[in-house]
Amino acid sequence: MVSLALVLPPYSFYYIKATIDEALIQAKFTETLKLDRFDEFGYTFLAPRDYCTPVKITDNNTDFLLNFNEFIDRHTPKSPLCNDMVMRVLLDAGFTSELVQEHWSKQDPEGITARFVATDGGITRVYPRSAGYYWTENPETYEDSFYKRSLDNENYVFTAPFFNRSSEEDGIMVSKAVKITVGGKLLKPAGRKE
Fold first, then answer.
1. For residues 150 and 124, what is the distance between their CA atoms, to the nearest angstrom?
2. Residues contacting residue 20 through CB under 8 Å, at least 6 positions apart
3. Which residues contact 24 (CB under 8 A, 6 or more apart)?
4. Helical (H) or strand (E) element with 148
């Protein structure tokens, strides 16, 4: 006889189920994922997930993002070919774009070369855009070491660059999970990094 036990941390019991009913808000949040808006909203990575069945999952994030945007532009996020993850990723796109526009774009803290936010829904934003070109983390947030380590830690997590990277990468990544409580339910939907 074999027994298997699965222990989930309390924040894994619940997740935000996004319902964005207004087409204008859907379009506004979708617009923040466009490549030509990266200067305004930061370099954006989309986790390669099966949001809509016709959108081919690829390891090339730019291609995947273009395919996703093209599908959403021709159809809608409420297409029967899409699942609930689409609304969740659009909600995260909206929240993270507001973070960039309302806060990060108005700050220039000394010694910080880039800011990052990664969400459970699959969005990673890197600000400013130029820092996104050097982003080497996996677009799939669940696969990122910093993301997993931050979720299971109450403190800041420091990650030093690998030795085999270019000499231009001399910074240290600092990440911390953001905890929120909604209706008495604990969520850790985003990891913030500076």
1. 15
2. 26, 29, 77, 87, 90, 91
3. none
4. helix 145-151
The alpha carbon of 62 is separated from its chain's Cα centroid by a whole number of angstroms, namely: 15
pLDDT (tens digit per residue) in 89-123: 998 899 899 999 999 888 888 888 889 998 888 99
Cα(194)–Cα(189) distance, integer angstroms? 17
User: The tokens 């339910």 sit on which residue?
Assistant: 185
Q: Which structure tokens are listed for 17?
A: 């189920």
pLDDT digits (tens, 9 = 90+) for 167-177: 455 678 888 87
CA angle in degrees (0–180, nearest 5) for 114-117-123: 125
| C-alpha to C-alpha distance for 96 and 44, rounded to whole angstroms | 10
DSSP for residue 106: G
Residues in Cβ contact with 109 at an 8 Å cutoff, skipping those fewer than 6 apart: 194
**Which pair of tokens denotes residue 144?**
């990122």
For 38-84, the DSSP string reads HHHH-EEEE----SBTTS---S-HHHHHHHHHHHHHHS-TT-TTB-T
Residue whose tokens read 């929240």: 95
pTM reported for the whole predicted model: 0.80
| Cα 110 from chain centroid (whole Å) | 25
160: left (phi over 0), alpha (psi -120 to 50) or beta: beta
Q: Which residues pair with residue 157 across a beta bridge?
A: 175
